[in-house]
Design a protein that fits this description.
By secondary structure, the chain is mostly helical. It contains three helices and no strands. The chain is elongated and about 70 Å long.
Protein backbone atom coordinates (compact mmCIF):
# COMPACT_ATOMS: atom_id res chain seq x y z
CA UNK A 1 0.00 0.00 0.00
CA UNK A 2 1.47 3.35 -1.01
CA UNK A 3 1.44 6.52 1.03
CA UNK A 4 -1.01 8.09 -1.44
CA UNK A 5 -3.48 5.21 -0.99
CA UNK A 6 -3.24 5.48 2.80
CA UNK A 7 -3.76 9.25 2.62
CA UNK A 8 -6.86 8.83 0.43
CA UNK A 9 -8.26 6.15 2.75
CA UNK A 10 -7.82 8.34 5.84
CA UNK A 11 -9.32 11.32 4.03
CA UNK A 12 -12.38 9.31 2.99
CA UNK A 13 -12.92 7.86 6.47
CA UNK A 14 -12.47 11.27 8.11
CA UNK A 15 -14.90 12.75 5.60
CA UNK A 16 -17.59 10.23 6.54
CA UNK A 17 -17.23 11.02 10.24
CA UNK A 18 -17.22 14.77 9.63
CA UNK A 19 -20.42 14.31 7.63
CA UNK A 20 -22.03 12.41 10.55
CA UNK A 21 -20.95 15.15 12.97
CA UNK A 22 -22.57 17.75 10.70
CA UNK A 23 -25.77 15.69 10.41
CA UNK A 24 -25.95 15.36 14.20
CA UNK A 25 -25.24 19.04 14.88
CA UNK A 26 -27.61 20.40 12.23
CA UNK A 27 -30.39 17.94 13.13
CA UNK A 28 -30.26 18.93 16.79
CA UNK A 29 -30.59 22.63 16.04
CA UNK A 30 -33.27 22.26 13.36
CA UNK A 31 -35.32 19.91 15.54
CA UNK A 32 -35.49 22.45 18.33
CA UNK A 33 -36.31 25.24 15.88
CA UNK A 34 -38.94 23.43 13.77
CA UNK A 35 -40.38 20.70 15.98
CA UNK A 36 -40.31 22.01 19.57
CA UNK A 37 -40.35 25.81 19.53
CA UNK A 38 -39.72 27.37 22.96
CA UNK A 39 -43.11 29.06 23.25
CA UNK A 40 -46.44 28.14 24.82
CA UNK A 41 -47.83 27.65 21.30
CA UNK A 42 -44.88 25.37 20.54
CA UNK A 43 -45.72 23.33 23.64
CA UNK A 44 -49.35 23.02 22.60
CA UNK A 45 -48.47 22.16 18.97
CA UNK A 46 -45.67 19.73 19.87
CA UNK A 47 -47.86 16.57 19.90
CA UNK A 48 -49.08 17.46 16.41
CA UNK A 49 -45.70 18.49 14.97
CA UNK A 50 -43.57 15.66 16.42
CA UNK A 51 -45.01 12.93 14.14
CA UNK A 52 -44.45 15.06 11.02
CA UNK A 53 -42.05 13.57 8.44
CA UNK A 54 -39.47 16.34 8.78
CA UNK A 55 -39.35 15.90 12.57
CA UNK A 56 -38.98 12.14 12.21
CA UNK A 57 -36.13 12.66 9.75
CA UNK A 58 -34.43 15.09 12.12
CA UNK A 59 -34.75 12.63 15.02
CA UNK A 60 -33.26 9.92 12.80
CA UNK A 61 -30.31 12.18 11.97
CA UNK A 62 -29.82 13.09 15.62
CA UNK A 63 -29.97 9.48 16.84
CA UNK A 64 -27.82 7.93 14.12
CA UNK A 65 -25.39 10.84 14.09
CA UNK A 66 -24.87 10.41 17.83
CA UNK A 67 -24.34 6.67 17.45
CA UNK A 68 -21.80 7.24 14.68
CA UNK A 69 -19.88 9.69 16.84
CA UNK A 70 -19.82 7.16 19.69
CA UNK A 71 -18.60 4.49 17.28
CA UNK A 72 -15.91 6.86 16.00
CA UNK A 73 -14.54 7.33 19.53
CA UNK A 74 -14.63 3.59 20.23
CA UNK A 75 -12.73 2.81 17.02
CA UNK A 76 -10.19 5.55 17.74
CA UNK A 77 -9.75 4.31 21.32
CA UNK A 78 -9.29 0.71 20.19
CA UNK A 79 -6.79 1.77 17.55
CA UNK A 80 -4.80 3.89 20.03
CA UNK A 81 -4.86 1.15 22.66
CA UNK A 82 -2.90 -1.14 20.38
CA UNK A 83 0.02 1.27 20.73
CA UNK A 84 -0.37 1.64 24.49
CA UNK A 85 -0.93 -2.03 25.39
CA UNK A 86 1.75 -4.24 23.90
CA UNK A 87 0.43 -7.54 22.60
CA UNK A 88 2.53 -10.63 22.25
CA UNK A 89 1.65 -13.21 19.69
CA UNK A 90 2.61 -16.79 20.51
CA UNK A 91 3.88 -18.56 17.45
CA UNK A 92 4.08 -22.25 18.14
Amino acid sequence: MTFEEIKNFVKNVAGVYILWILVHYISAHLYVYWCVPATILGFIASPFIAPAPHCQALRWGLYNGGNSIITMWLILGAWLSRFIIPMKINST
